[in-house]
Amino acid sequence: MVNEDMDECKFNISDCDVNANCTNTYGSYKCTCKVGYNGDGRSCSVTTIYIFCYTFCNDKRNYMTMGHKNDKVKNL
């Protein structure tokens, strides 16, 4: 009898956080938070928040944006 390993990562049936990488292991899988996130892999939260301030020359208003370096920029 041959034991085949199911790749939980490939079939998207792991419970890894959306901000984690899934690594298949024989008989199981491992979740590891992506760079910039912290946690156990099943729950990952942002560890670094970048704040950017800049001025638009046309209307002289200051805008501030905030987010993780890999996220889409959000105006505050």
Automatic annotation (TrEMBL):
InterPro entries in UniProt: EGF (IPR000742), EGF-like_Ca-bd_dom (IPR001881), EGF-type_Asp/Asn_hydroxyl_site (IPR000152), EGF_Ca-bd_CS (IPR018097), NELL2-like_EGF (IPR024731)
Protein name: EGF-like domain-containing protein
Pfam families listed in its UniProt record: EGF_3
Keywords: Disulfide bond, EGF-like domain, Repeat, Signal
Species per Swiss-Prot/TrEMBL record: Pocillopora damicornis
SMART domains: EGF, EGF_CA
GO MF, one annotated term: calcium ion binding
Gene3D superfamilies assigned: Laminin (2.10.25.10)
Keyword Repeat carried by entry: yes
Domain EGF-like as annotated: residue spans: 5-45
